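hey
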């Protein structure tokens, strides 16, 4: 209001003609520059927009776990370290670790100057009563800046009506705490109304929001587009796979989604196989294009798997080549060489399953009779840990491809290299 009054007075002043009859409103007025918003970046380049960092504040932020660069870049000025200490002590009392607090301060340093008892404690009590862990809350500390009465409580009451139980509310917030930042009137209510308009039953809406509360961040048009894309894959809104498919497409923009589908088609995947694969394992489209290409080339060109088999078990696209598939291939190679399993084994079936299941069936089962099977598995895993990449070239490490002993050679070379480097370090110390 004060600014508005000033503007009106200045405008009235500009319209008063001079004694000579000259219209002052036509002459340049230096005050115009202060009232306009059309500043150029070049004009502002030399103007200091903020005060230099306060050394005491920078030092305190570094003590909180921030890097010196991040601390210096912060615009925060801590006038009372006692209050900041009280904030950190309060957060620790609610189960936040020093790492959690450092992350929260990095994202929202203003937390350190808030009143710990009047502002922070009631909000922390609310999230604690819901069962939201400090670790999850630390990933979205802006929630603690939201108004308790005007935002958090009304939103949670709304979620209670949609999700039904406290455990569902807890799980929804824990999976996607950022979703709770959405406005109740501008986002949450319109989203639920859109989902109902598109034919999603209330029970399905509850399940969807429970697993992907970030849907509140999408516009009604985007939600409608996702519905159309899922329907084109013959996914019924009442089907069990619809919520999973919706959750996946929430993480992709439409351009990326279409590009991933085109990439699978470029390998010869038919529309029917692509449809079935997506229904079974929709996260197959969340992989980067580079990873999709790398894995399909490996499965088809190196392991000689049939494309229909890979698409029939699309979960294999989610397995790490380096940490899972290649070590398993090394084990199967040894067992084939020793005649413990048939060469015509259904390879894709053997490669699937949990690490424990594979280890029990193919490693521990033959450990006494075929010691090399344990060594094959350990060598590949050892190389992965040391090199943080594939234990060896794909053709060498795969059991269906001879040359697996190169894993052991590589392990020996790595061990030798480590010893050499350690020796050099010791020599440098002396």
């Amino acid at each position: 209001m004060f600014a508005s009054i000033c503007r009106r007075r200045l405008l009235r002043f500009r319209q008063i003609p001079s004694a000579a009859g000259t219209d002052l409103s036509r002459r340049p007025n230096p005050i115009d520059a202060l009232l306009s918003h059309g500043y150029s970046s070049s004009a502002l380049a030399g103007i200091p927009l903020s005060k230099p960092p306060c050394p005491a504040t920078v030092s305190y932020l570094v003590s909180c776990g921030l890097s010196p660069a991040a601390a210096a870049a912060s615009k925060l000025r801590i006038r009372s370290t006692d209050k900041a200490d009280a904030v950190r002590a309060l957060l620790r009392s609610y189960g936040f670790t020093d790492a959690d607090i450092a992350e929260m301060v990095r994202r929202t340093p203003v937390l350190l100057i808030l009143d710990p008892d009047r502002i922070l404690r009631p909000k922390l009590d609310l999230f604690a009563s819901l069962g939201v862990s400090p670790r999850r809350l630390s990933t979205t500390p802006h929630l603690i800046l939201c108004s308790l009465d005007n935002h958090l409580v009304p939103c949670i009451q709304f979620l209670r009506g949609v999700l039904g139980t406290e455990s569902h509310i807890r799980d929804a917030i824990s999976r996607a705490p950022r979703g709770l930042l959405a406005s109740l009137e501008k986002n949450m209510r319109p989203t639920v109304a859109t989902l109902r308009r598109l034919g999603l039953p209330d029970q399905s809406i509850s399940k969807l929001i429970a697993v992907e509360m970030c849907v509140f961040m999408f516009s009604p048009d985007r939600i409608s587009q996702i519905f159309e894309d899922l329907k084109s894959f013959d996914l019924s809104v009442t089907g069990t796979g619809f919520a999973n498919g919706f959750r996946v497409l929430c993480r992709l923009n439409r351009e990326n989604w279409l590009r991933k589908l085109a990439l699978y088609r470029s390998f010869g995947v038919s529309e029917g196989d692509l449809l079935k694969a997506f229904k079974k394992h929709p996260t197959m489209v969340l992989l980067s294009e580079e990873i999709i290409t790398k894995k399909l080339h490996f499965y088809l060109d190196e392991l000689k798997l049939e494309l229909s088999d890979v698409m029939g078990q699309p979960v294999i696209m989610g397995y790490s080549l380096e940490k899972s598939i290649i070590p398993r291939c090394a084990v199967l190679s040894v067992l084939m060489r020793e005649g413990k399993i048939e060469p015509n084994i259904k390879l894709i079936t053997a490669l699937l399953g949990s690490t424990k299941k594979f280890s029990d069936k193919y490693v521990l089962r033959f450990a006494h009779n075929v010691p090399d099977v344990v060594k094959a598995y350990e060598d590949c895993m050892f190389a992965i840990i040391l090199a943080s990449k594939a234990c060896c070239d794909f053709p060498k490490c795969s059991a269906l491809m001879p040359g697996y002993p190169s894993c052991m050679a590589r392990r020996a070379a790595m061990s030798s290299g480590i010893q050499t480097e350690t020796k050099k370090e010791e020599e440098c110390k002396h």
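The chain has 25 helices and no strands. The first helix runs from residue 2 to 14.
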